[in-house]
Specification:
The chain is of the alpha+beta class. The chain has a single domain, classed as Cyclic phosphodiesterase (Cyclic Phosphodiesterase, Chain: A). Helix content is about 25%, strand content about 40%. It contains four helices and nine strands. A hairpin with a 2-residue loop joins strand 4 and strand 5. About 20% of the residues are buried. The mean pLDDT is about 95.
């Protein structure tokens, strides 16, 4: 198959409106800090359970069949602290930790796809809210982010999604391939 026909694919959980509103509030606080970069579009907020990369449609069909077999209960999740991923002490990603019983689901997804994709070595349940290219005061910016106090929102979700991502100059465009709902176990 021609690699140009491959689709950039990932598995994720989306967020309810109350969480999106809180992220918008936090993004407004971050925006007041001087940096060059980009806030994550509110419609694109998600927590990635597994990034599959650019794969052919036939592999996507195999992934869908394997994901349909996963049995999981409704998940109880909550927003945690804020932080940054940095390269050489320069912040590159601003994230919010997502806590709760998401790890069991991620492990099941990993296990169900282990004959197609390598296992995740360092899964950290987080939501990317900004991508930073440059900030004048890296230490001060990181310290500011570490002191952000997200509201302690709790929420439930009963599904995860397989999505494709088309990268464009205006940002990624996500398309839902299939949604997988919790089952009583």
């Amino acid at each position: 198959m021609n690699p140009k026909n491959n689709l950039r694919t990932f598995i994720c959980i989306d967020f309810p409106d109350e969480v999106i509103k809180e992220i918008a509030r936090l993004q407004n606080l971050i925006y007041k800090q001087k940096f060059v970069g980009k806030l994550t579009e509110l419609e694109n907020l998600h927590v990635t359970l597994k990034f599959l990369g650019e794969i052919p449609e036939e592999t996507i069909n195999k992934v869908k069949e394997k994901l349909k077999e996963i049995k999981f209960p409704e998940l109880n999740l909550k927003i945690g602290e804020a932080g940054t991923f940095s390269i050489k002490r320069n912040p590159r990603i601003v994230w919010i930790k997502i806590k709760g019983d998401i790890f069991n689901l991620q492990k099941q997804i990993d296990k169900s796809l282990n004959d197609l994709f390598p296992e995740e070595k360092r899964f950290m349940s987080h939501l990317t809210i900004a991508r930073i290219k440059y900030t004048k005061n890296s230490e001060g910016f990181r310290e500011y982010i570490s002191k952000l106090k997200p509201k302690k929102l709790q929420f439930k979700t009963n599904s995860f999604k397989l999505k494709t991502s088309e990268l464009t100059p205006k940002g990624p465009i996500y398309t839902i391939v299939e949604e997988f709902r919790s089952k009583n176990i």
